[in-house]
Amino acid sequence: MLVVENLHAGYDASEVLDGVSLRVKQGSVVALIGANGAGKTTAMRAISGMLKPTQGRVLLDGQPVQELGSARIAKLGLAHAPEGRKVFGPLSVEDNLLLGAYSRLPAFFGFRGKAAADLARIYELFPRLRERSQQAAGTLSGGEQQMLAIGRALMANPKVMLLDEPSMGLAPVIVQEVFRIIKRLKQAGITLLLVEQFARSALEVADYVYVMEHGKIAVEGVPDEIRKNQRVLEAYLG
Length: 238
Hints:
alpha/beta, 39% helix, Rossmann fold, 238 residues
């Protein structure tokens, strides 16, 4: 479904990614873990088109997309819920959600009608967003904004969803709630690439794990293998 081959990317003259390769199979949850500064968010940005790679390929459902912009990649079925949530604060919760559907629904005639079923699905998954549907997104709590960011990405009905640091800045009890949501997404068959600072939580939901160090994939394997890897145990699970 999503294949990344020998990806290089960076900012100005600084290269951050040094030949990253990974695969996300349809219906699976793949976790990308590593220390701060390892290049995880840069990888997500390069995959989604927010940052143009300098070398390598990104294949979405077999189609090369590394030369395309983020809007075009989104239309092809890749949704990115970025680090820091990035909701549109002045807009209502519902308007934020509807923006997620613009990549695949007609912009004018019948837009809201066609989006209604998707909204109902998101509100079923996130009842709190239904309660706050007309509230300005900027007034939500951090946990609610994270739910909104995930819901907005889901409104695109994506083939693959990138979820970058969903627990960042959240209280432990809210982190647990976010991971319950991720488990529900997994049960629903959503194909997901997850970057997460809490390695233990990521391993609980992942089907496969990549460990990134200094812009490269250092270790990979199924969660049970990763848990037994002494290098990973000392660095991330100790």
